Amino acid sequence: MIKLSEIINFINFQDLVQRTAEQIYMFSIAILLSIVFGLIIGIVLHRAQKLSNIVFNILNIIETLPTIALLVLLLPFLGLGMKPTIFVSVLYAILPIARNCYVGLNNVEQNYIEVARSIGLNEFEILTKIEIPLALPTIVSGIRISIVFTMGVVTLGGLIAAGGLGASIQTGVQLYDKTLIYVSAVWVGILALFFDALAYLVERFLQKRFNNV
């Protein structure tokens, strides 16, 4: 039977703590940037509906490109390491957030908006106080999808010297160290489930909070 001390020694020896910190660092930056840009795009397209087909088609094309190919294409411009990994992660994660933001805002009932206008709220106040709060559950659903995407893309960054748990998996493959491969891969899955669970709790809270408006 494997002792706990042996597992801890294995994790320390393989630098899994440092790799986990690198993974979470890249993931956090990528998902935060994705949320900011995704929300901006969703809100702008909600106001400029004619552009929505063009922009979403472009984002859909980016989404269909193989991740490895996109990482390699960016190497001459961004070099090796974290920059291209975070950049590609953001590109892949923007679409679900922007699309859900757009759909959520479009589905807000006009009655709420008309009442808001009748009491003197301007367009910015209607957006921030009425539309976005009512669309939040849908927006968070898009963020949950992006969380899973981003964790996977960040892991592929190990192939271009970005560090993270992808580097541990790559080392395990090169050394044919099954334990390292399994521990790193399972740990990536646990991290994805953990962050998805956090987003799920936020989503449930928002549904209870705003479905009763």
Structure commentary:
With 213 residues, the chain is mostly helical. Helix content is 84%, strand content 0%. α2 crosses α8 (165-175) and α7 runs antiparallel to α9. The longest helix is centred in the middle third of the chain and has 34 residues, at 123-156. The chain is elongated and about 70 Å long. It starts with a helix and ends with a helix.
Helix/strand order: HHHHHHHHH
For the record, give the distance between the C-alpha atoms at the N and C termini, rounded to a whole number: 55 Å
DSSP E strands, number: 0
The Rg value, from CA coordinates, equals 21 Å
- Major sheet size, sense and barrel closure: none
How would you classify the helix and strand content by structural class? mainly alpha
Count of helical segments?
9
Kindly report the average pLDDT value: 85
Task: Give unreliable regions as ranges.
Answer: none
Shape: elongated
Kindly state the percentage of residues in helix: over 70%
Approximate strand percentage: under 5%
